[in-house]
Each structure stands twice: as C-alpha cells, then as structure tokens.
Amino acid sequence: MPDTKYRLSTAVVDINILQGTTYWENWILRFKDTGDSFPFFNENGDLEWKGRCMFRASYGDEVPLLSLDSDDLGGVVITLEVAIASYGLLLSAVQTSALPSGRLVYDIEFERLSDGWVIRPQKGTAIIDPEATK
Q1: What is the pLDDT of residues 96-126, one digit of tens each?
Q2: What is the pTM of this model?
Q3: Sign (positive/negative) of CA torsion 38, 41, 45, 50?
Q4: Which domains does the chain show, CATH number per domain?
C-alpha cells in the first residue's frame, strides 16, 4: 500500500532566470492542514529525500535542456535551519548561459531514498532573459 501521508498538490511557480548569472531561489514546502514543513530529514538529522529538476523547451520534449539533482554542485539543494526544511534551485552562471533565451518548462521532484516514493511539489514556466554581455 503506498504511503499517502505525503500526497501533495503540485504548485505552479513561474520563475525568471537571467542568462549568464548565478540563479538561486528557495522555497519551504509546508503541509496545508498543519503548516509544518515537509520532513526531508529524519529525527536524527539525516537526509531522507533526493531532489531532481529538469528544464525542457516543452513537456513533450524527450531530451532535457538541463538536468539537475541533489548530487550536483548546486542543483536541487535541501537545507535544514532551525527545524524548518527548505529546498531550492542553484544554477551556476555557466548553466544559465547554456539555456536558450525564451520560455522553458521545468519541474522539481523528490524521491524518498528508502523506497523510491516520488513527489512533485512544483512545476512551471522558466523565462530565460537573454544576456548581451557575454
């Protein structure tokens, strides 16, 4: 029987990325009924989830333009500060330079390490603002 404790709605969050700059944005994932932050960490402080994110020109594209995960330097970052867990996206200037300007789609997923349970708390449009100074 699947664990329904972590059944979540997917929020649509549009983001703006300046091509050629470092991008950092973070969010707190909270339960609507209690306001508690999502338990990315167990009671011992060990990380229990792995994050991943992909950017594509459209949802139907087979090959992503950029693929990130928790193991990348930057990528999908999960943090714990004063008992509040948050997650974020960190893209280097090199990574944002490689993204084509215009409208892309993205989503962020998390997989529980113990059993492969996957949630997708966020998806949306990423507007890549072109750079003139290269």
Answers
A1: 999 999 999 999 999 999 899 899 999 999 9
A2: 0.86
A3: negative
A4: 6-100+113-129 (2.60.40)
